[in-house]
Request: fold
Amino acid sequence: MSVQDSMPQRTLIVLGVDMSRDIKSKEILARYAAGERIFRDLDRGDGIYDFSHSDLRGAVFTGNHLFASFREANLERADFSHCNVKTSDFSQANLASATFFGSAIDAAVFDGADLTGTIFEGASAFGYVFGKDELPPRGLHGNSRVIF
Reply:
């Protein structure tokens, strides 16, 4: 048995679901590492994507319908325009200068995320449509959850 075999594997559990990095998430991250930046083939039917702790600066997810963990990911300048990211987790993510223009963000979690310059104009949550320069509501201790 090697040292690596004896080390415990880190697994993220979200809503009771095992989020160890799945094949589809690995494929998207490999495409990003190879220089691709536009990802329009993600779908909620693929299951839960795990992009936690990933560097996806400048990635374009426009028009996707996905459930994902982006916990502690670097999503600076990422484009989520016209996406359905309902219930996705962006906790502690760097979302500086990202855009969610026209997106569905119901129950998305933004706890501790850097929302500096992030655009939510036209995004909606539970029937509320965000205006220019509006951010998701901040809860106690600076947490931001889109729950009305």
User: Anything to note?
Assistant: The helical segments are 3-6, 23-33.
